[in-house]
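hi!! sorry for the late reply, been swamped w classes. u asked for the two structures so here they r. pasted raw, havent cleaned anything up. first the sequence of the first protein and right below it the tokens
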Amino acid sequence: MAQTYIVDKDGNQIDASAATVPSDRHFRGAWSLSGSVISEDMDAAKEIFKDKVREARTPLLADKDVELMKALEAGTSTTAIATAKDALRDAPAASAITSASDIAALKAAWDTSVLGDSPYA
């Protein structure tokens, strides 16, 4: 029977049957092996989280660009649109992400008022 190995973010590997593995696999790319225990490297997890925020905001920014152009053509106020675009651009730099001390706090840092439904809910 073939063995299954788990490889961490640094390329270290362990037989899966001998490892203590986190139950949450959202941040699989941040796993770090120490002995037979795999834990999440918070710095790496934060970068993965920020990438997910950037991925989620891309279509939202495109939608706001369309709204902006329509408002400009109609001669209506663009203030609310500009504010929403600023919030989307600033989302990866949110203090809740930076200050997250564990995976649960990091998942809770998803700002649903800016980004919509959390992929971590």
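now the second protein. again sequence first, tokens right under
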Amino acid sequence: MEANKENQQSMEQAFNQALDAYKAGNFAEAAGQWLALAEDGCAPAQRALGSLYERGQGVEKNAENAFEWTKKAAEQNDPVAMFNLACYHDKGVGVKKNQQTALTWYRKAAEYGHPEAAALIASLIETGDRGLEKDMDEAVRWYQIAANRGNVLAMGRLAWLYSTGTGVPQAAQGGNAACMMNTAILYARGEGTPHDAHEALYWAEQAKKHGAPQAERLINAIKKNG
């Protein structure tokens, strides 16, 4: 157990050293270090190496290699690799274009918490695209996951849905305090939607009524700062 922990720490340290080289513009050095780690089964290194091959940074640009290394990482449940792999299938990069396979990997990435994937799945469910059944409650659930992980587009979409009451009977309008708090914060910060202190205060007060523990503090902040 201790040996495995030390090996993981060593791998993480080596990955970060390669990352430092990449950030410094030493792409070839980063590629060499990530290749060694990737061959040892390090998923983040496999994903990073795939991106280098996609962009031609430190290695010769090669879509097939980008796809293969990214796939190895995705199969180890790396969420970013899952999303990248979905994009490759979606666009036909290094593999024959297949939107249904892309959708499978987008969903897997979303299930592992990738914010852009969650926002995309939400949008597809909201519109019923790619053969998915339209379900506003499910779409809102995925938008909420994406927004909670910082996706600005999902924040903006949620703010609009909550403010209009469109398709959210089980979310903000149905008494979901977390959704109400999120909406209040979006309006208060002007993230994904225009700043609106009145709307922010309204949703913060609704959240307080439904037991959100931080609502009182948010209400006071909105009243103080607008």
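hope this helps!! also noticed smth abt the second:
The two ends are 53 Å apart (CA to CA).
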